[in-house]
Target: Formimidoylglutamate deiminase
Amino acid sequence: MPDVPARAETGLFFDSALLPGGWARDVRVGIVDGKIASVAVEARAQDRDERHAIALPGMPNLHSHAFQRGMAGLAEWRGDTADSFWTWREIMYRFVRTMTPEDVRAIAAMAMVEMLETGFTRLGEFHYLHHAPDGTPYANRAQMAGALAEAARASGIGLTLLPVFYAHSGFGGQAPGEGQRRFLHDIEGFARTLEESRAALADLPDAVLGLAPHSLRAVTPEELHALEGLAGSGPIHIHSAEQRREVDDCLAWSGARPVEWLLANANVDARWCLVHATHMTGAETRALAASGAVAGLCPITEANLGDGLFPAPAFLDAGGRFGIGSDSNVRIDASEELRLLEYGQRLGAQARNVWARGAGESSGGALWRGALAGGAQALGVARGGVAAGIALGNSADILTLDADHPALAARAGDALIDGFVFAGGSGVLDCVWRHGEKVVVKGIHRDRPAIRERFISTLQRLLA
Model:
């Protein structure tokens, strides 16, 4: 039998790193084939190791509609009537009317670059723009999914693809509207789309395929049951209780609120992520926490759309799991999502340090650890018995911070995260490794110029 050549190891050495067990000094991480092959603390650097001061695990982005990055800022003009999520949605429908797969690739690649530059290393793409402009499926039903996979490959970001099932415009199976024609499926066609999407992800490192019933507005109970069967053990994401009108319409249809109905009628467990879950009663909040599902919170978008505030204190006290997402991508910044998540709660409660539940606990530390664990679970990369982050066998998704940044001066441990999230923002971030490959250096993605140029030329044509 011929000798098998030894796999090359890349070594990274950090003066200080956040590990699953807490902060550690003099940490050496060995990387083989994109994964963490060794973690040693109080270690010595080896000759070829790349050395940095401060390391954090990369942050999952559990909810995004990447194409919407192209319409960021276009819905900030007041209309003739009171503006809301529902008027914003009409602008979005107009924006997607003529987009091609290549347009989606160009816009998504730019969004993914910005995600990596601000600390997101894996993306959960809630993908519902499937068909040609007239609503006809492409010959390859995963052509749009393939464009997203190509954008992920170009940027280097990890991808959990969540093809969306969308069939109706309102509760009880109402007929879809004209603006939704590019999103629509029946169960048989969606099953084909899933299989062709799996093929589109085949050569993308550590990609995950899940699925997403868009919302209870867009699926019937029978369709939801069928989708649970198609999901197997993969992630299941669904929009839920984002707007008060959605709650009222669900009550009128079923006599129950959206989260209440889901928990009573679907097998909601740790596979599930309920995105937004903004408007819940105390009983719903406690029940969602007990289910093991993740609440997917998108504070920048929720603020932009005027959604409301998630009931965080009760959810956290009940042991609830959460993660963060960039959703509409009106602004992309991992630290800003966390900062706004906390600040929204402070405004609502007229109190400080709401996310930190125990005396002496850091708000930044609580936010980072919670969103890391919940995001990894929601995106299907949490492995049984192994914590998310810089741990043996996990993908080497690592951020380094600029120790010379004023926001980090004279700080250590969780005070570094507080400085990053609340004082410095994404300007504190130095380098990013995704699956062991360095994709961001001194805060700038290695391929930003070319990807930016394609993005700008695409928007100039779309918005002409």
Summary: DSSP finds 14 helices and 17 strands in the chain. The CA atoms of residues 165 and 213 lie 5 Å apart. The first strand starts at residue 10 and ends at 19.
